[in-house]
Structures are given as structure tokens and as C-alpha cells.
Amino acid sequence: MKKHVFKYLIEFLVVVSGIIISLNIEKGNALDYKNELKNQSLKRLMKNIDQDIRDSKLNKKIHLNGIRFSERILNNHESLFDSDKDSLGYYLSVISYSESVFVDNQEEYLTLRNSGFLELIDDDELVRLLQEKYSKHSFYKTIENYIRAQNNIITNSVLEKTSYISSGSNNFFGNYGNYESKQKLSNYELNAIQRKKVFCEFYIAQINIGLESDSLLISRIKKEIE
Fold first, then answer.
1. What distance in Å separates the CA atoms of residue 82 and residue 77, rounded to the nearest whole number?
2. In angstroms, rounded to a whole number, what is the distance separating the alpha carbons of residues 106 and 90?
3. Is the pLDDT of residue 23 over 60?
4. Which of 77, 152, 155, 184 can pair with 96 through a Cys bridge, CB separation 3.0 to 4.6 Å?
5. Residue 182 phi, psi dihedral angles, 5° rounding
6. In this structure, are residues 41 and 108 in contact, taking their beta carbons and an 8 Å threshold?
7. What residues contact 35, with CB distance under 8 A and at least 6 apart?
8. What whole-number distance in Å separates Cα of residue 193 and Cα of residue 125?
9. What pLDDT digit, counting tens, does each position of 158-183 carry?
């Protein structure tokens, strides 16, 4: 009788052990599958961040041009009006064209977050940097709205005070007209140019921080998916 009990006990333990091993294998396979999905999502996210870097560099170039020509008008607007209206029209047009639209592409990040894959990332600093990056995007849009408000004033000045007939073109910004108004730029208009310049300088500082952070993100993502 004892032999039979011992035999049944051994068989039971073998069956239980087999079930436990099978469950562990299934659990390991499921985890490996989730990690593979996480890595695929991170690869797509890395491409988005790389596009953000290219867009940010272009936006930086646009706003730097606007700042440069803003300074020329602010420092020389009277002499330009008196003796170089062609340049005045050109500078004013360039400033009005110096506007950017930040494309807030969060789809892949939201997929990564909502699927729970963020929890599978080993690098805690990478998770922090990702959260920080996408939380700042709305702030970029806010800065652009401030810039756009001043730019609308400047654009109205271009429409009112420069000729619709092209005096020349710039490969980056397009055509511009000669400054044909008999009135100088008003204090209101100069204030708008000054305010836009200040907002653009602040925005460029944020872009530089973002470029550094995005480059670090790409480096950490590459290490995570190795």
C-alpha cells in the first residue's frame, strides 16, 4: 500500500512540475514577445525623434533669420526708410515669413505608454527623458502662438506698406516687394518686431535644449534595443 502511495505521489509531483515548467516557459515567451513589441515601438519612436531633430534645426534656422533682420530694422529703420527702401521691404518681408509650426507627433509615444511597454524599459533615465520630452511639446506650441500674434501685426505692415510687385526673391523665403509707403514704421510696428525678436530668442533657447535632449534620447534608445 505504501508503495502505491509513494508511486502516486511521485507521479503527482511530476505532473505538477511539468505544469509549472510549462507555465514558466509560456510566461517567458510572453515576456519575450512583449519585449520585442516594445523594441519595435522604440525603433519607430526613434525615427520620429530623428524627424523632430531635423524639423527643429529648420525652425531654428528660420527664427535666426528673423532675429537677424529684426535687428537690422530696429537699429537702422530711419536710414533704411530714407535711403534704402528696397532693403527695408526685404527685411520686413523676411521677418513676416520667419514663422514655424511645430508638428506634435505623439502617436507612437502614446502607443508605447498606453500599452504598458514603458514599464518594460530597463533604463529609468530613458523613461524620464521620454516623459519630459512629450510634456514640453504643448509649451512649444504656446511659444509659437505668442510669436504668431506679433507676426500677424508685422504681416499686416508688409501688406499695407510694401508693393505687391516683386522687387526680388529669396530662395528660402520667396518674393518681396519694395517699401513704398510714405510713412515710416510706427512705434507700434517696431514694438511688434522687438517683441517677436525676444520671443524667437527664447524659442531658440528651448530648441537648443530640445536638440540636446533628443540626441541623448536616440543614444539611449539604441542602447535599450541592442
1. 9
2. 37
3. no
4. 155
5. -85, -5
6. yes
7. 120
8. 40
9. 999 999 888 777 766 678 889 999 99
